[in-house]
Design brief:
The complex is a heterodimer. By secondary structure, chain A is an all-alpha fold. Chain A contains 15 helices and no strands. Chain A is 77% helix and 0% strand. Classes of the chains: A mainly alpha, B alpha/beta. At the A-B interface, α10 and α11 of A face α2 and α3 of B.
């Protein structure tokens, strides 16, 4: 049996990027190479990992979710208000929000609408709802949630443990189960899936509901970390999640996705910000440099594809 | 022999076209049925109905003695053991061979499903194509087209709970090499003993005659012949596919061989040159998808290679995907090819655009109260007229047409035929890919395509349905002069 080298290198690209970043950070700041250091470094990564997985579920069927940032903000705002004051109603709101995500998927499928437009519209809806729920910054995250994200498991920082668990669960669900195969197939050749007797409506709703669930988890953990919220909390999550998923090897079309890659991509996006801070780079430049790193990795991947194509 | 599938009085209309016009078909268990016909005969609609992917307007569908016409769909069909290998493949390129097998089997799930899917597809591949060399964990997108086709065929024969009873193979050998094609036909014959029936569609008539017990010939949405394969010859089939009264085209009989050439280059395949003279209407014929569109695009993209004299315009056949600008008005859709000529001081001259549109609305008879209406307010036939107007209103001397009359009503067709004649007389030249045999009578000469090559050149008095069909369908003993 021969090994497909191109596939191997391609799959390990996000891991290589993460390793390179970590090495650079440790070199700049050796004290980061400790339990406490890693904990601080990766503190913010858990909600980003969830948001990136949400984006990846939507990418699976060839759509793009521009509403995830607004959605995560909305969830965080509900968490610091309703979930803290009236837990039952808070849970109901969050469940309804996931159902809302599935409904958006149904709308896109039934009316054959461009997902990018519908989710862009939804992002305003979510931000609007967030402002209604929490008109001014504040609120208080429930104590149990704050305690949960501050857990200090022995030996391995929570963020790393969470990343591993989330990545493996996502991989099992989407890449290994017989159900996941149908979900991915829908992104590869929807017509073939329909011809085999599957319902594209149910597939899209399932994927959007999964995205909604990930969005809720992102909002909860984000609120847990920040302990309060405001209506601009997760503005950048939309682009961060897209960048993380694509960096992790997912593609915009064709149902090529990778949950483990998405988790790694999210970690890279988180660490890139810290790395630039360690470089004492003017914060005004940080986003630009973050973009440059993204372009660099994508260019590497394109180069790999071209080299392989000429073989 | 009792019938496994019995279809009666099937009807299906698409806009102006009667795709199925009262079709009856019986397939017995263990029978190999050859299905032949030219473009638009209704073959693909028929097999889509049987596979459950197209719902007929009327008719009866009986499978194994059970009346199923109401609510017949893909699941009903697969639950009764009916499988279909479509001509354009139905595999997901991002999934592996084993995963694609899982897609069609709901029963493959739960613990260890991957091992079962792998074993199932590899076992079937081994049975049909020994020595195939396909690994079950390869992604479909990384396989060659021939291997993809092998996977798709083998997948149709895989069995979980329901045994396979009928497999429909639409041009199954188009991407297979001759060894694999023989392996497939041998397998089909072996499975006959188990009672597995096959419907075989192929443009290789030798393949049909060699493998089938019975041959059904379709034309214009009807079954026109249903014969035992024994004793039939290739010529018989070609004769049955055409119309009864077959005479040379009754165009104006003009010869333009003395006019100067406006296109001249090596034709695809290299056997014939592709030539077009001033004022000529030249048809590109043959079965759909045998390289005609590619040849037109070749000319359009690289006019220098064909020594093109004058500018070119393209009339798209697939209106939705590469014809109309769906959000634009009728007038803008007409004028878009001429925008650069309609400028004044660097800006678009709206009055000139409207003038051009009104002029062509009159000349080509686009039925609309106002050319500023959106293009989608028009019927399909009138949208097609807009695409013609776009090409004819331009400064192009050579008009390339990509089967533009697909699904257009008879009235529109005759109006456009007259216009093409008139424009040709005025000195324009037309290269016209058509899937409809009837349209070839409007051509001065015809090139017949098969498998991406020009295989025959018919001069005006040689254009007959029979000649076109002869060249379109290959017998295994190749003998086209």
């Amino acid at each position: 049996m021969t090994i497909d080298w191109r596939e191997l290198v391609r799959a390990s690209l996000p891991a290589l990027a993460l390793t390179a970043l970590l090495v650079a950070i440790f070199w700049l700041q050796p004290r980061a190479m400790s339990y406490q250091g890693l904990n601080l470094l990766l503190n913010l990564s858990i909600p980003i990992v969830f948001a990136t997985l949400a984006q990846m579920f939507v990418l699976t069927v060839g759509d793009l979710d521009l509403g995830i940032g607004g959605f995560v903000t909305f969830v965080a705002c509900v968490t610091v208000t309703w979930l803290a004051d009236a837990p039952l109603i808070g849970v109901l709101i969050l469940v309804a929000a996931i159902a809302g995500y599935a409904a958006v998927g149904a709308l896109i499928e039934l009316r054959n609408l461009p997902a990018i437009v519908v989710t862009l519209g939804m992002s305003f809806v979510w931000f609007g709802l967030a402002v209604i729920v929490l008109p001014s910054p504040g609120g208080r995250t429930p104590e149990w949630l704050i305690a949960a994200v501050r857990l200090r498991p022995p030996g391995i920082p929570l963020a790393i443990l969470a990343a591993i668990v989330i990545g493996l669960l996502g991989h099992l669900l989407l890449m290994r189960t017989s159900m996941g195969v149908v979900l991915r197939g829908a992104g590869g050749n929807p017509r073939a899936i329909t011809r085999a007797g599957w319902s594209m409506l149910r597939i899209r709703m399932t994927l959007y509901a999964l995205a909604g669930l990930m969005g809720v988890l992102a909002g909860l953990t984000l609120a847990g970390i920040t302990t309060s919220a405001d209506a601009n909390l997760a503005l950048r999550y939309t682009l961060l999640s897209i960048a993380g998923a694509i960096l992790g090897g997912s593609q915009f079309t064709g149902g090529r996705v990778s949950p483990i890659g998405a988790v790694l991509g999210a970690l890279v996006m988180t660490l890139a910000a810290s790395f630039l801070a360690f470089l004492r780079l003017n914060p005004d430049w940080q986003i630009g440099v973050q973009g440059a790193i993204l372009i660099l990795v994508l260019a590497l991947r394109a180069l790999l594809d071209r080299v392989a194509g000429e073989r | 022999m009792s019938a496994f599938v019995e279809l009666a009085g099937l009807e299906k209309r698409y806009e102006a076209v009667r795709a199925l016009d009262g079709v009856d078909l019986r397939v017995a268990a263990g029978e190999v049925l050859g299905l032949v016909g030219h473009n638009g005969a209704g073959k693909s609609t028929l097999i889509n109905v049987l596979a459950g992917t197209v719902v007929p307007d009327a008719g009866r569908i009986e499978v194994a003695g059970e009346d199923l016409a109401r609510g017949y769909d893909v699941t009903t069909a697969t639950d009764r053991g009916i499988r279909c290998v479509f001509q354009e493949l139905s595999l997901c390129p991002n999934l592996t061979v084993a995963e694609n097998t899982r897609i069609v089997h709901r029963q493959i799930k739960g613990r260890g499903w991957q091992a079962r899917a792998r074993a199932l597809i590899i076992g079937t591949l081994d049975a049909i194509f020994p020595g195939h060399g396909i690994r079950p964990d390869r992604r479909i997108g990384d396989l060659s087209i021939g291997r993809r086709q092998m996977v798709e065929i083998a997948r149709a024969f895989t069995e979980t709970e329901t045994p396979v009873r009928l497999v429909i193979l639409d041009e199954p050998t188009s991407s297979l090499d001759s060894t694999a094609a023989e392996q497939l036909l041998a397998y089909v014959r072996r499975r006959q003993a188990d009672g597995v029936a096959t419907i075989l569609i192929s443009h290789l008539l030798g393949e049909i005659l060699g493998a089938a017990d019975r041959v059904v010939v379709m034309r214009d949405g009807k079954v026109v012949a249903d014969r035992a394969a024994a004793g039939l010859s290739r010529d018989d089939l070609v004769g049955l596919m055409g119309h009864v009264a077959d005479q040379p085209g009754e165009g104006q009989g003009r010869r333009r061989l003395d006019a100067e050439p406006v296109l001249d280059g090596p034709g695809p395949g290299g056997r014939h040159r592709l030539e077009l003279r001033r004022g000529e209407v030249v048809g590109l014929a043959g079965l759909a998808g045998h390289g005609q569109t590619a040849a037109l695009l070749d000319v359009y993209d690289r006019p220098r290679d064909f020594a093109a004299v004058g500018k070119l315009a393209f009339v798209a056949g697939d209106r939705q995907s590469d014809g109309v600008f769906p959000l634009w008005s009728i007038k803008d859709n007409i004028a878009v090819r001429s925008f650069s000529a309609l400028r004044r001081n660097g800006l678009l001259d709206e009055a000139a655009v409207t003038g051009l549109a009104l002029d062509w609305q009159k000349r080509i008879g686009i039925r609309t109260p106002d050319v500023r209406n959106p293009i989608l307010s028009l019927s399909g036939g009138n949208q097609q007229k807009v695409l013609f107007a776009r090409a004819l209103a331009s400064d192009a001397a050579i008009i390339l047409m990509d089967d533009p009359m697909r699904g257009v009503d008879v009235g529109t067709k005759s109006e456009v035929y007259a216009l093409i004649r008139q424009e040709a007389t005025a000195g324009r030249s037309f290269l016209w890919y058509t899937t409809e045999l009837d349209e070839l009578v409007h051509c001065d000469r015809v090139y017949v395509f098969r498998e991406g090559e020009i295989v025959a050149h018919l001069a005006h008095d040689e254009i007959t349905e029979r000649a076109v069909l002869q060249a379109s369908f290959r017998s295994d003993a190749e003998a086209v002069a």
